[in-house]
Amino acid sequence: FLANTFRDCMATTFASDEPIETILLTSFSSKYPKALQSFQQNPRWLNSSSSTKPLAIVTPLHESHIQAAILCTNKHGMHLRVRSGGHDYEGLSYLSTYTPPSAFVMIDLNQLRSIHVNLPHETAWVQAGATLGELYYMISKASGVHGYPAGICPSVGVGGHISGGGFGTMLRKFGTAADHVVDAYLIDVNGNILDRKSMGEDLFWAIRGGTATSFGIILAWKIKLVRVPPVVTGFNIRRTLEEGATMLINKWQHVADKLHQDLFIRVVAQNHGGGGELGLEAKDCIEMSWIQSTLYFAGYNKWDPTEVLLNRITTYKSSFKAKSDFVMDPIPEIGLQGIWKMLLREDALAMVIMDPYGGRMNEISEYEIPFPHRKGNLYNIQYLVKWDDNSIEASNRHVNWMRMLYSYMTPYVSTSPRAAYANYRDLDLGRNQKHHIPYSEASAWGFKYFKENFKRLAQIKTRVDPNNFFRNEQSIPTLN
Ligand code: FDA
């Protein structure tokens, strides 16, 4: 019933000769399952009985379609979810786990993804539905010496990624993706389209790393490009435990954040694969352009056509559970050995990904934008386990293993708060179960993601969306 009411409301608001089905599918449509599943990255959620699917999917071709969807959902007591690239770790852009279930509509921005690079100004306007791969590709078409410091996986959407921070191989040199946003278009709860000037500096601060989805819908970001050399160098060295991997990681922990900021050395400890070369030699170093390095670090070959970056479907798609931590003091060798033991206990592909901080990250204040993880962090850890058997039993088993690993890590990582990265969303940290959740309850996870910035985020939320229309299980709460 509600789906049809929403459809009728959209049909009267939608000013076009085209049928409403051009942009709207209700859950009764035969095309709906494909549209729901097409860009989601974690199939774990689609089988889950504890999540609710959207009553309708709107794929706007124009910003007025989003304004109509805000108006119609608001009018009929529903809420919205927004999907750009569909990489949300807990599926919050297309599913809801509220109990009791709360009717919602999903806006899928995959048709709003134009990119305009302005080379003389070294900026670009990027619509929210574009992926990082599309952005990198368009920058490389305009210039061989410009880039953008964002994530490694090309199919990640800029809509979600930048609104949670966003980092990759240029983190130590330039900081996060959100640090390089200079303007944005956002649709607010009243359907107004705001830019930096009209939204004001407080709201503009909040959407750069403080989960924009709590404040409105990002239409586009204006980003500042960074200068990259015509040639960069990449290398990939594998070592097994027998070849001294633990000692190597131990050494890495003491130097990785202090090396020259042009150098970014990521460590991936994993239970499957590995073994091979010993020591870094000249032959391991591969010279390439920056755009080739985005291919190389995404798992392609540097000579693959750059058009593969335009593929919106990730090559990594499988069920997964992830968590994150920040390390402020080197983990003793015995602690590292314990990580290996835990990894070897898991039969599915499991990894501990360590990204060094330091460099530019030490120079940016933790209050500059809501992303607070700056000076004092040696490195970030992402724990990841991936599996193909999509049964509930398998899912529970792997998730339990992940929780054990997280518990094992407690003495070795940041405390008060035990910090976490908002883009590696983890509902184990806590969730809003109801329309209105007290700020004090939400603080359980809010301070982990945003530290002291959480309070300012809640103040801004209270001002711009007092009725909490833009909400999900980990959206910023109001202070009421
Ligand atoms: P999705 O569309 O699922 O959105 C994520 C969240 O943002 C949801 O809450 C959604 O509602 C909201 N949102 C989306 N579009 C919005 C809009 N236009 N306006 C307001 N809110 C919006 N991170 C990183 O920093 N570095 C990395 O290298 C990687 N690599 C990586 C690889 C893979 C395979 C995955 C699955 C994820 C990553 N990530 C990452 C994490 C990634 O940055 C994070 O999941 C982003 O939120 C994904 O943004 P999407 O737009 O793709 O997701």
Automatic annotation (TrEMBL):
Q: Which residues form the FAD-binding PCMH-type domain?
A: 50-228
- Cofactors named for this entry: FAD
Keywords linked to the UniProt accession: FAD, Flavoprotein, Glycoprotein, Signal
Q: Which domain of life is it from?
A: Eukaryota
Which Pfam families would you find in this protein's record? BBE, FAD_binding_4
What PANTHER family does this protein map onto?
A: OS08G0158400 PROTEIN
Annotated family:
Belongs to the oxygen-dependent FAD-linked oxidoreductase family.
Q: What is this protein called?
A: FAD-binding PCMH-type domain-containing protein
Record the organism. Stylosanthes scabra
